[in-house]
Amino acid sequence: MLFLLLLLISVFLTIQSHSFHKSQVITSANFVSGGVYKRINAANEYLNLKTENEGLAKENARLKSLLFNKKDSLIDDSKNLPAELSTYKVIQSKIINNSYGVHENFLTINSGSKEGVKPDMGVLNSKGIIGIVEHTSKNYATVISVLNIKSQINAKIKKTNHFGTLTWNGKNTGYVQLIDVPRLATVKKGDTIVTGAQSIIFPENINIGTIHKIYTDNKTNYFTIDVKLFNDMTSLGHIYIVENKHRKEILALEAKNKDE
Amino acid sequence: MNSTLLINIARFIILILAQVAFFDKINFLGYINPYPYILFIILYPVNANKNGLLLASFLLGLTMDMFNNSGGVHAASCVTLAYLRPSFFRFAFGLSYEYQTVKINERLTPERFSFILISILTHHIVFFLLEIFRFSFFWNILFRTVLSTIFTLLLCILIIYMFKPAKN
Predict the structure, then answer these.
(1) How far are the Cα atoms of B26, B98, B105, B138 from residue B34, in angstroms, in the given order?
(2) Which of B69, B74, B77 to mutate to test binding with chain A, by most A CBs within 10 Å of its CB?
(3) CATH: 3.60.110.10, 3.30.300.30, 2.40.10.350, 1.10.10.10. Which one for A153-229?
(4) CATH T-level assignment (fold) for domain A26-148+236-244
């Protein structure tokens, strides 16, 4: 029966999208929805021109100050966007659709494989990280937002270098959770959380947010930390996509270890 | 016949565009969105081919899933609503609905209201069940569904009576 057939297909697609990573069949990274989102965004952009300009001006000022005070940038190189320019390739792009109202949030950006965007590249802006590229088409790509309960990103506490995994509990768009932080770590409200060195997607020391609240899990001896994001995920515009040029090499090396 | 086909194609495109460009961006209270795009299924001609409606609803839901990166959740709830629609007609307008010319977009009677309400509820409940399968935020999703149902219902009724086609 037609009804059962169609229902089965849709349930199959639902389950497919649930299993982790690279499984989605139907995404907004395609000619039709990408094109529609691009046009909608072009109209919306005019309304946000002012805030967008302010953000760019601020970043411009920060980059200028880095340029004029080269000594400072040597001491505090963590503030520099691409920490090691030789390892990371940076592509400039723009978000044309942003979702933050559901539990699995995706963004659509208007660069695709034509510009060199590939799955598993990191997405960030001047304030901090945004997500990881999931699917690409010729001109568009979808990005798993950090506000996605499937998202897992390696992060650390800047002061103490203790690592944890950045996840989202699906509740508040302003806060994400850093889990599996060892109890040995000294954590304080207000400390900065940045991306960790174990990540082969993001450069180290990219800003994420500050510690807002600390919970201790009695069963596992780990901290769970509420992190207040630097980024307002509900209002995003221009972004950078970073690619770790050594990613393949690292992955191949790690795969070798597993084989032995 | 040909003009009803054209009207329905236009409705399909306009409702999806309105949903994607406007209603998906409302995010009332941070995350509650109405889904008035299902008006396409509610307003589909009563006596038209049932398989045609099923296929059109599947396509409608699939397009929504494409825009929302949501797998097949919209498609499943749309197909279920399309399948159950004749039973809802019988429930709301009585057994002989097929011989009368039931028109949804006319004066709001209790029959029409109950039909629209039960249609929206069905769509949202299937939507809700599939979301629960995907995650485990039971109360959160229940809360969203109830609010979203009310929101959709109000908007659907508003849209129907705002764009009531001129009678000839």
Answers:
(1) 8, 30, 20, 19
(2) B69
(3) 2.40.10.350
(4) Thrombin, subunit H (2.40.10)
